[in-house]
């Protein structure tokens, strides 16, 4: 069984590395591309920020319920919720990139101490949103390979980081929304 687990995990390890590098690079590259400024006739997708902020909030709620589910030995529910949380995160990412490719970035207008709070939350959110990618993928692959002891071990790290990223995504939106 151990050999099978190792083969299953090693089959995905290359993809974990590729995605953990490619996703942040693609987001950074696409973030800097504004289709309107390049001459494309596209409408700004200014309606997206409250939608993707809501998706972040839903992701946070799903993560909490999934945590409750596994603590209460509801394994299938936990599995389905985690797949849904991953899908929500992917959906958020697609909408986030689409918004930034069609709309000008909004500057935070707060002054004084709130400005420092906002940028602290924003920077930690961005850094941890990059850091969490390989953690989520490794955690998921360990569950797929039925390596549950190792899955639990990394999930203890993945869960709080992912939850922080989801919650601070909502907080960042709420703090910047008056300046849209």
Structural notes for this entry:
By secondary structure, the chain is mostly helical. It has one domain (2-179): Four Helix Bundle (Hemerythrin (Met), subunit A) (Up-down Bundle), CATH 1.20.120. 79% of the residues lie in helices and 0% in strands. It has five helices and no strands. It has helices spanning 2-31, 48-71, 75-102, 113-144, 148-176. Helix 1 runs antiparallel to helix 4 (113-144), helix 2 packs antiparallel against helix 3 and helix 4 (113-144) runs antiparallel to helix 5. The longest helix is centred in the C-terminal third of the chain and has 32 residues, at 113-144. It starts with a helix and ends with a helix. The mean pLDDT is 94.
Give a quick precis of the structure.
This protein has a single domain, classed as Up-down Bundle (Four Helix Bundle (Hemerythrin (Met), subunit A)), CATH 1.20.120. It has five helices and no strands. The chain is 79% helix and 0% strand.
Keywords:
180 residues, mainly alpha, Four Helix Bundle (Hemerythrin (Met), subunit A)
């Amino acid at each position: 069984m151990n050999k099978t687990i190792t083969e299953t995990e090693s089959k995905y390890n290359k993809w974990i590395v590729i995605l953990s590098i490619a996703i942040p690079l693609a987001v950074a590259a696409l973030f800097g591309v504004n289709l309107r400024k390049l001459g494309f006739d596209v409408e700004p997708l200014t309606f997206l920020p409250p939608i993707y902020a809501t998706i972040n909030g839903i992701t946070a709620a799903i993560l909490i319920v999934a945590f409750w589910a596994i603590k209460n030995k509801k394994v299938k529910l936990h599995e389905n919720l985690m797949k849904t949380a991953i899908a929500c995160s992917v959906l958020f990412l697609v909408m986030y990139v689409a918004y930034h490719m069609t709309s000008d970035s909004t500057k935070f207008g707060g002054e004084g101490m709130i400005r420092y709070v906002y940028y602290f939350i924003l920077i930690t959110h961005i850094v941890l949103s990059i850091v969490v990618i390989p953690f989520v993928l490794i955690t998921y692959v360990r569950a797929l390979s039925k390596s549950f002891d190792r899955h639990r071990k990394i999930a203890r790290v993945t869960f709080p980081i992912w939850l922080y990223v989801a919650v601070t995504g909502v907080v960042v939106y709420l703090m910047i929304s008056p300046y849209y």
